[in-house]
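#onboarding

Welcome to the new folks! Below is a worked example of what a typical request in this channel looks like: someone posts a single protein sequence, and someone else replies with the predicted structure as tokens. Don't worry about understanding the tokens yet, we'll cover that in week two.

Example request:
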Amino acid sequence: MNKENEQMTKDRIVDVNISEELITRIVNEVMESFQTDNKQVKKITEHDRIRLIKRNSVVFEKFDTGNPTDQVTFKEILSIEESPNMATGFLKIEKSAFDWYLGYDELDYVIEGTLEITYNGKTYTGHGGDVIFIPKETPVTFSSPDHCTFFFAAYPANWQDLCEAKK
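Example response:
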């Protein structure tokens, strides 16, 4: 709220004899009601068929690359109950690189930044709007020299189990 509106609001509070503390409490309660649960992705559904994910509701969590200094976060957006065949989500990399074994097929759509995928000594660089496909049973290095955010779709949906099986 800018200073002019704030002063006008305070003046009106005095005019109607409502305490500033009461107004502050009401405003805080209203603002809290607009906040979403940090673990909850806001979805709009249609008869258990269509899912519309609201991008501002996606809260990223730490992604375990095996190196605690890596700056990698992600969020899956559909549960295995909602999408039993394919996993989907977002991943962010900030000036980090990590090795990964894909025991599943993965399609990555680069939203922003620079995503580098290195396989067999060759690096494939994607930028905003680019798509990268990685077939199952492929060991790669995911990296970004600056930052990147990408959307992933993995098949089958239990991709995490298939990574752990190879470790």
